């Protein structure tokens, strides 16, 4: 069953301006260490696109959780990592993880699907949270 859906469109130029103005302070406050490593392996527009897509994914996930960035859900609690084949996955911690477990019914386990793309000057992400029946113990 679908628990929540969120999407977000981000202007890459906005992320560029914030990075120019606040640099490492902004990066450390908003992005996980793994996200920063992924972005730092790229340069120029590819680096900006990496950050912008992850920003959009965080916004989309917060919407799918039904809270936005409130009730203990922070940007740093939402991370995007990539599986070995490149598929993006959301990794939740802190208040975001607690909220996820609040909204998933007993006897079900959460699954988060995320898709991201960028085409300068925009980045887009969509997150769908579903609850799958947990196998009997």
From TrEMBL:
Q: Which GO terms describe its cellular component?
A: cytoplasm
* UniProt keyword annotations, A-Z: Cytoplasm, Fatty acid biosynthesis, Fatty acid metabolism, Lipid biosynthesis, Lipid metabolism, Magnesium, Metal-binding, Transferase
Q: Tell me which positions the record assigns to the signal sequence.
A: none
Task: Share an example GO biological-process annotation for this protein.
Answer: fatty acid biosynthetic process
Q: Which Gene3D superfamilies match?
A: 4'-phosphopantetheinyl transferase domain
Coiled-coil-forming residues are none
Q: Which coarse location class describes where this protein primarily resides?
A: cytoplasm
EC numbers, comma separated: 2.7.8.7
Q: Which GO terms describe its molecular function?
A: holo-[acyl-carrier-protein] synthase activity; magnesium ion binding
- Cite the binding residues for Mg(2+): 8, 59
Q: Where is the 4'-phosphopantetheinyl transferase domain?
A: 4-97
Enzyme class comes to transferase
Q: Which InterPro entries match?
A: 4-PPantetheinyl_Trfase_dom, 4-PPantetheinyl_Trfase_dom_sf, ACPS, Ppantetheine-prot_Trfase_dom
Q: Which cofactor does it need?
A: Mg(2+)
Q: What reaction does this catalyse?
A: apo-[ACP] + CoA = holo-[ACP] + adenosine 3',5'-bisphosphate + H(+)
The superkingdom of the source organism is Bacteria
Where in the cell is the protein located? Answer: Cytoplasm
User: What Pfam families does the record tag this protein with?
Assistant: ACPS
Q: What does this protein do?
A: Transfers the 4'-phosphopantetheine moiety from coenzyme A to a Ser of acyl-carrier-protein.
The similarity annotation says: Belongs to the P-Pant transferase superfamily. AcpS family.
Q: Which protein are we looking at?
A: Holo-[acyl-carrier-protein] synthase
Supply the gene name. Answer: acpS
């Amino acid at each position: 069953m679908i628990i929540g859906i969120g999407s977000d469109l981000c202007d890459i130029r906005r992320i560029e301006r914030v990075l120019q103005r606040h640099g490492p302070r902004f990066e450390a406050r908003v992005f996980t260490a793994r996200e920063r490593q992924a972005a730092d392996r790229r340069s120029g527009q590819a680096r900006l696109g990496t950050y912008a897509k992850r920003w959009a994914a965080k916004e989309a996930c917060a919407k799918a959780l039904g809270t936005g960035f409130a009730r203990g859900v922070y940007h740093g609690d939402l991370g995007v990592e990539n599986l070995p084949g490149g598929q993006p996955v959301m990794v939740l911690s802190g208040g975001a993880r607690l909220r996820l477990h609040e909204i998933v019914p007993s006897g079900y386990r959460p699954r988060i699907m995320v898709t991201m793309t960028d085409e300068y000057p925009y980045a887009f992400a969509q997150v769908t949270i579903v609850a799958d029946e947990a196998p009997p113990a």
